[in-house]
What we know:
Blueprint: E1 9-13, H1 18-30, E2 35-38, H2 40-46, H3 48-57, E3 62-69, H4 73-83, E4 87-91, H5 96-109, E5 112-116, H6 123-132, E6 137-141, H7 144-147, H8 154-163, E7 168-172, H9 180-185, E8 190-193, H10 195-198, H11 203-216, H12 233-239, H13 242-248, E9 259-261, E10 269-278, H14 285-291, E11 299-303, H15 314-323, E12 327-334, H16 337-343, E13 347-352, E14 364-365, E15 369-371, E16 374-376, E17 381-385, E18 388-392, H17 397-419, H18 424-427
Parallel strand pairs: 1-2, 1-8, 2-3, 3-4, 4-5, 5-6, 6-7, 7-8, 10-11, 11-12, 12-13
Antiparallel strand pairs: 9-13, 10-14, 10-17, 15-16, 17-18
The structure holds ligand LJD2ZHX5.
Amino acid sequence: MENYDIPPVQVALDLLDLPRAIEIAKEAVLGGVTWIEAGTPLIKSEGMNAIRKLRENFPNLTIVADMKTMDAGSTEVEMAAKAGADVILILGVGPDSMIKEAVLAGKKYGVLVGTDLIATYDPVERAYELEKLGVDIINIHVGLDQQVLNIDPVELVKKVSERCKHAKIAAAGGLNSETAVKAYEAGADIIIVGGPLYKSESPEKTARDIITSLKTGKPISTSKFKKFNEKELLDAFKIVSTSNISDAMHRTGEMRGLKPVVDFKKPLKFAGPAVTVRTYAGDWSKPVSAIDVCSAGDVLVIDNCGSEISCWGGLATLSCKTKGIVAVIVDGAVRDVEEILKIGIPVFSKSITPTAGEPKGFGEINSAILCAGRTVEPGDWIIGDENGIIVVPKKDAMEIANRAIDVKEREDRVKEEINRGNTLGKVIRLKDWELKK
Ligand SMILES: O=C([C@H](O)CO)[C@H](O)[C@H](O)COP(=O)(O)O
């Protein structure tokens, strides 16, 4: 293994397909990465062959096997060591008897054993215990399913590096050219980067940026590979399409059966928290009153029981412009299409009719409603574009936004590979990953 004046950067290849992983690793190596990790998904997909092939392709670099071992410590360390790994990562949350066996096997086969602190109850104390059990590396790891909740590892890196004096400290989870240097300053000896490298259109450039940031001590700002917090939801939802969000929500969330009253010559994209209205066939009183309850940036969502009598029209849409409302969704009918198109606020409805109802005043504003097949609570996020409309529950909005961005970033890399002369079926090895039952 090499000597460094900055911590080694380890590319975590969390992909399913070995040829793609090797290609991405080669590009990352051109940018200065020196540790190559067979990520757990790659190991589960390709087995120990992933490690053998990485060793073959990168004979002089450090090969890491992220085994996430929980049991059979000695056997799993032996397997990975014999396949060519220099460093084997196991789970720190596992039993001490497993850790001891893994450490002994590591010494026997001349490899380093690292423990991942993911899901440990008291990570700082467990790190100290693991160090006493003889592990070589402690990995402070915020996993992929934790990062979407906007957790980052830096604070914990600091605490663990103060507590542990012998083991090397690795940091993983959401590190990029902006944050890697913070992890280094907090005490990390090894910087692990997955997504920002394997999702990059240019892993070489991304790796170079990360390494430059470590060398200069200055973060390099990036618009990609970031996680968004509760206050940044609008920015986050504007980056992604409703298709990305649908994938992130496992195909739930879509409103069904609505037709847009929009000018398709202009790009269509809106996102905002819902103000909800429930009323009855053609009764337009509560929908119109709700306009005054809205703040700028809101989306007005109206449950008119799928009525074919209009509860919405041009004057109401114009009032939305005054208030800064970004879209109106009606489970019912609307009218004055020409005016709506001229005003330019997207309106979606089940049907269009010239016939309006009466302002009777039945219903409620800002209660839970059912609209186009989806329950909508006040404050839920409504996102719309040319593909349709998605409802994201308020309580899950940050997680879904971050997951949708991950979907988009993965697609960006696939797009890059197609643009290099490939096809989708080949890039994602479609035949292998069809459902087999
Ligand atoms: O170890 C990882 C995860 O458990 C999947 O195997 C990741 O490599 C690690 O979280 C780093 O990922 P990024 O946040 O994408 O850099």
